[in-house]
Every structure is written in structure tokens, then in C-alpha cells.
Specification:
8-stranded antiparallel beta barrel, about 200 residues, mainly beta, Porin, elongated, 2 helices
């Protein structure tokens, strides 16, 4: 699956590079990630676990002010469960690291000489490469299989921000996971949610 995602990203970048007006950018920032758990008897949303993301993308014109932005992203997701809910003496924090391939459709609204406001949305597919669970000073790392999770994830991204005329970006986003990542839990679904803020630069 990781090879498939990287192959898709490579093809997208080659297509982008062939387009005369294509530009490239990079974004990085903080993720505030949560997990939603649904079962026959209850629905639970975890506290936020702070992580990070780094994204490289291509900006390909479609029509005036409308762009397609395929990319490759390293995304930290997961969630935190307070001691009062977990039954342990300290909070439990789960961090899941994904390689994702997003394809966003982005619309720019010119605001004058300072830059453009933008907003967009699009699907993403991801593959989990590392899972970590920590409680106080104790932590355990391993694969998604070790954590009893499916490594594949997919969903929809929403984003908005401001692009300055010099190329600097201020952006925020929300990742809505649509895939059940629980591996061996019949009747239970676990899905990723992540709110992000960050900065970047488009060349």
C-alpha cells in the first residue's frame, strides 16, 4: 500500500511538472487530532492529541482562480483519553503517523496587492507507518498491526487560509476520516479527526 501511494504521488507530480503554469509549495504545522469511537451502546470522542504535519504539493491551474493541488503529506493523528475515562492514573495518548496523498480543489479570492484568501476541499488516502501509545513516562511503539488497527485510512480534507503576494501561506484545515481503522472489534468503528493550523510557502 505504501508503494501504491508513493507511485500515485509520483505520477501526480510528473503530471504537475509537465504543466507550464504549475507551481509547488510546502506546508507544515500542528495537528490537534481526535478519535471518534462508535459502538452499539455508545459514542465517544477522545480529547485532542497534539502532533504535526508536513505537506508538499503542486498547484495546477484549472480555470481562473481555481486550482487542483495534489500532494504528499506526513500526518500525525490519534487521540488522548483522560485518566477519568481510561481507568488509569494518567492520561493515555495514542499517536498514529500516516503517509497521505491528498488531492484538493482550491479556490482563490483576490483581496488586492497583499494576496489571496483561499478555501478548498478534496479526498485523501493514507497508510499508517507507525503507532505509539504513551502514558506518563511510559511509551510503547510499533506497527498498526501491533496496535490492533488497520493501516489504511481515507477521508475528506477541508482547508482555508491566506496566501500573501510573496508566496507565504497561513492556513487551517480539518481532516474527516471516513474509514473504520479498528481491526478486530466487531460492532465498533474508530475514525480519525484532525484540526490543523500551520504556515507554508508556495514557490
Amino acid at each position: 500500500m505504501k508503494r501504491k501511494l508513493l507511485s500515485i504521488a509520483t505520477v501526480l507530480c510528473c503530471i504537475a511538472g509537465a504543466h507550464a503554469q504549475t507551481s509547488f509549495g510546502v506546508k507544515a504545522g500542528v495537528n490537534f487530532a481526535k478519535l471518534t469511537v462508535n459502538s452499539d451502546r455508545t459514542t465517544y470522542t477522545s480529547d485532542a492529541a497534539t502532533s504535526f504535519y508536513v505537506t508538499g504539493y503542486a498547484d495546477m491551474p484549472v480555470v481562473s482562480n481555481l486550482r487542483v493541488q495534489p500532494g504528499v503529506s506526513l500526518q500525525g493523528k490519534g487521540g488522548a483519553v483522560p485518566a477519568s475515562d481510561s481507568g488509569f492514573e494518567e492520561k493515555v495518548k495514542d499517536t498514529y503517523m500516516y503517509i497521505e496523498v491528498p488531492i484538493n480543489l482550491v479556490y482563490y479570492v483576490p483581496t488586492g496587492e497583499f494576496g489571496d484568501v483561499f478555501f478548498g476541499a478534496g479526498p485523501y488516502a493514507g497508510y499508517g507507518i507507525h503507532a505509539k501509545s504513551s502514558q506518563g513516562n511510559l511509551s510503547e511503539s510499533g506497527s498498526f498491526n501491533d496496535a490492533g488497527l488497520k493501516p489504511f485510512d481515507a477521508g475528506v480534507n477541508f482547508l482555508a487560509g491566506f496566501k500573501m503576494s510573496q508566496g507565504f501561506l497561513i492556513n487551517a484545515g480539518y481532516g474527516l476520516g471516513l474509514t473504520n481503522i479498528a481491526k478486530e472489534a466487531p460492532g465498533t468503528t474508530v475514525k480519525n479527526r484532525a484540526f490543523s493550523v500551520g504556515v507554508g510557502f508556495q514557490f
